[in-house]
Write a structure and sequence with these properties.
The chain is an alpha/beta fold and 740 residues long. Among the domains are: 114 residues; 76 residues, Immunoglobulin-like, CATH 2.60.40; 145 residues, Leucine-rich Repeat Variant (Alpha Horseshoe). The protein is built from 26 helices and 22 strands. The strands form five sheets. The chain has an eight-stranded mixed beta sheet, with helices on both faces. Strands 17, 18, 19, 21 and 22 form a five-stranded antiparallel beta sheet that branches. Strands 11-12-13-14 form a four-stranded antiparallel beta sheet, covered by helices on one side. Helix 6 runs parallel beside helix 12, helix 21 packs antiparallel against helix 22 and helix 22 packs parallel to helix 24. The longest helix has 30 residues. The relative contact order is 0.11.
Length: 740
């Protein structure tokens, strides 16, 4: 059985998500003085790099040139088993900043606009409430617009140097130099930056050691070498950030983290949940004065040069920050602290998910312990080698596609382009670190497979993974009619106790009736206005001639209007506005009151079983999401001889109320030679008001190939669709038809 400590208690989670538990409030931690705050709370600096695996000198990579990062490792702790919950930036960052799995809060599809439950907040907001000055320089990419309550400043100019005197800080510097786009960047500017590297800092393509799933060609070696070149350029930026810390005399007061946001930005790395996409570097330098705080039971574990092989997940970052800062970790957070006074028991497993990546749908889940990786392919019928326009711009990807078309790939190189995937994959990472030898069918590993499969199934249930809900259905659930909800305007109140301030000052309370709302404020007057929004945690002192400005925000909602209060204006009494005790209309609350997820899990248990009867029965299910997977199951599991009996059922599904079901049925019938009946349904779906329904339709047209030719005019019209992903697939489809 999976370690229950690895996940939050399911009953507790359902209580919170349904609104039956008390609202999670921001901690109000009084600081007796700036000196007390400084003595009790360390500064924390995050230095993050995009799209890198542990391809660094300090991790034993002789090809790498990373002296500044290696210096952090020499002075700190190198973590060897740290993993993202996704292989791409936006779902990854949504989990990091909230401490929750994207598959729980609905931020799992790439570039979606999430509407998390009311209790979900950016963890930096808790730090701000505790007196920290919090800055982000500068990427957010959280799958929702960052609320003004999250950061004191989030911009290219954000810096700890703007904090108040002796105020503790939490600062992020995110370097994009190593991003996927820079590996393929052959611009004059990038080539000059690489040329300016010293001879020993440049990477010779001839000396590159390629993974076995790549073809060994000059183009591939060039990409691999430039990947290491841009890491070296990024390493110099890390050195500059550390120098600023030294110059400010803060090095001994600051815990420094260096980490990557997911695996390397090359094919079969980024976007995938193999270790090449999930395993990342994490190096933490804890100054001597903070080692007892970081590791209460064993301060020596944070000594210079230490190596830690505990399993760490990205969703553990948020609670660990709160633990180090002395802030109580809210009960809804699914991560677990691995440092500080609230340090939890080490993990047995880490978990990961892959859902829509840009314009390509897939649905994969993974579980990993220290030795084995289990992968469950819920869309096993889809090739790994789907077209993603952004990814296809990488020379290595183009080279792989060219050689595959020419039949020149060998061994593990061919795996990426197999027409389907196995339902289950199992890898022994110790003997097979590149994950190319699937052991799922090997009888010797039956007990390992069953254990890992069970751990996966328990995680899916305990975290209420809702990834099986088709995105068109989910979008309507989270934002009916596509309309964004707006946070209610805050209201000003007199506090219950009004301290004596004379006639020149008064105190004002602020409240908002929207469940889960946070409030920010600033003060203007006498020609000055606060530059940044302050986080509201307690009543505000308003002086004569000043004006109090406030607005409310909630993740996934539009911010409220800005409201103002002049010094001499009256306010209501201390009673706050009525606030609903439960957020019962939120999609997560509604979903958890149904048996939809259980029904979806049940129907997906049929994958690979050869049973078809339950699919037929499920075509009449009350939930569109179940009917969708029933159609998909019949489409991909039926043998040719059984299709004639299924065709009448899918013709009926062409008239289903849900566009995802209609598109799935039309796709199946086109594949079965009934495009005359099915193509009009796909043409109509291209005009659907929901962008993801249109995306489903254009993807189906792309996959049926030549049979889509009668709809070329409609596909050409889709080039002007308001959704970028629809336009991309339309262009890819037209290119394929023109090449035939």
């Amino acid at each position: 059985m999976a370690n229950p400590g690895n996940n939050m208690n399911r009953r507790r989670f359902l209580q919170i998500s349904s609104g039956s538990a008390a609202t999670v409030l921001l901690p109000q931690i009084p600081l007796s003085s700036a000196e007390t705050a400084k003595a009790q709370r360390p500064n924390i600096l995050w230095v993050s790099a995009e799209d890198i695996s542990p391809d660094l000198g300090c991790y034993g990579d002789d090809y790498a040139v990373t002296p500044n990062i290696d210096k952090i490792a020499a002075r700190g702790v190198r973590y060897d088993n740290v993993y993202s919950h996704s292989g791409v930036c936006a779902p990854t960052r949504s989990g990091i900043v909230t401490g929750m799995y994207p598959t729980t809060i609905g931020t799992h599809h790439m570039r979606c606009k999430g509407v998390p439950p009311a209790y979900v907040k950016c963890f930096s907001e808790y730090l701000r409430a505790a007196g920290y000055y919090c800055t982000n320089n500068s990427k957010t990419d959280y799958q929702f617009n960052p609320p003004p309550s999250a950061w004191d400043e989030s911009s290219r100019n954000a810096h700890w140097r703007k904090r108040g005197k002796d105020q503790p800080f939490f600062a992020i510097f995110n370097f994009t130099t190593s991003h996927e786009s820079q590996i393929r960047n052959r611009s004059k500017g990038m080539l000059q930056r690489i040329a300016n590297l010293k001879p020993h800092e440049k990477h010779d393509p001839a000396k590159a050691v390629l993974p076995p799933y790549y073809p060994d060609t000059p183009l591939v070696r060039k990409d691999w070498a430039q990947y290491y070149d841009v890491i070296t350029l990024m390493d110099k930026q890390v050195g500059e950030a550390l120098k600023q810390l030294e110059d400010d005399g803060l090095a001994e007061d600051t815990i420094v983290w260096f980490w990557g946001d997911h695996g390397r930005g090359l094919p079969r790395g980024k976007r995938w949940i193999y270790d090449s996409g999930l395993r990342i570097p994490l190096i933490i330098h804890v100054p001597e004065k903070w080692r007892k705080l970081a590791m209460p039971a064993n301060p020596d574990a944070a000594k210079p040069g230490a190596v830690n092989d505990d399993l760490v997940a990205f969703i553990d970052f948020a609670p660990t920050m709160l633990s180090l800062a002395g802030v109580k970790i809210p009960g809804h957070i699914q991560g677990r602290a691995f440092l500080g006074g609230q340090k939890a028991k080490s993990r047995d497993y880490i978990y990961a998910a892959r859902d829509r990546m840009d314009e390509a749908y897939d649905l994969i889940r993974a579980v990993r312990d220290k030795r084995y990786k289990y992968i469950r392919n819920y869309m096993w019928y889809v090739t790994r080698g789907q077209d993603i326009d952004y990814m296809n711009q990488m020379p290595t990807m183009r080279e792989m596609r060219r050689l595959n078309a020419e039949g020149k790939l060998k061994g593990p190189q061919k795996q990426y382009f197999e027409k389907t995937k196995p339902v289950e994959e199992l890898y022994d990472i110790v003997t097979d670190p590149h994950e190319v030898n699937n052991l799922a069918g090997d009888p010797q590993y039956k007990s390992v497979l069953e254990r890992m499969r069970k751990a996966h199934a328990e995680w899916v249930i305990e975290t209420s993974d809702m990834g099986l809900i088709p995105e068109p259905e989910f979008d309507e659930m989270k934002r009916p009619g596509g309309e964004y909800q707006k946070t209610a305007d805050p209201v000003f109140r007199a506090p219950e106790r009004q301290p004596s301030s004379g006639k020149t000052a008064r105190r004002v309370s602020i409240a908002c009736p929207t469940p889960g709302a946070s409030i920010v404020y600033r003060i203007s007057g006498e020609g000055r206005t606060d530059a940044a929004w302050r986080l509201y945690t307690k009543s505000v002192r308003l002086a004569e001639s000043k004006v109090l400005h406030a607005k409310a925000c909630r993740i996934g909602f539009k911010d409220s209007s800005e409201v103002r209060l002049k010094f001499d204006e009256k306010v209501s009494g201390p009673k706050p506005p009525d606030t609903p005790a439960k957020d019962n209309q939120h999609w997560r609350s509604k979903l958890d009151r149904t048996d939809l997820l259980a029904r979806l899990r049940k129907i997906k248990e049929l994958d690979g079983s050869g049973e078809n009867g339950p699919y037929v029965k499920a075509l009449k299910d009350k939930y569109a999401s179940v009917r969708y997977w029933a159609v998909v199951g019949l489409h991909n599991n039926l043998k040719d001889r059984d299709r004639n009996r299924a065709e009448p059922l899918l013709r009926t599904a062409l008239k289903d109320a849900a566009p995802a079901v209609r598109v799935a049925a039309a796709h199946a019938l086109c594949d079965w030679g009934r495009e005359g009946e099915a193509l009009p349904v796909l043409a109509e779906a291209l005009k659907d008001k929901t962008d993801k329904a249109r995306l489903y339709a254009i993807i189906a047209l792309n996959k049926i190939g030549e049979k889509a030719r009668p709809l070329v005019p409609q596909i050409q019209a889709a080039l002007k669709d308001s959704d970028n992903y629809v336009r991309r697939v339309a262009q890819t489809t037209l290119n394929q038809l023109q090449n035939k």
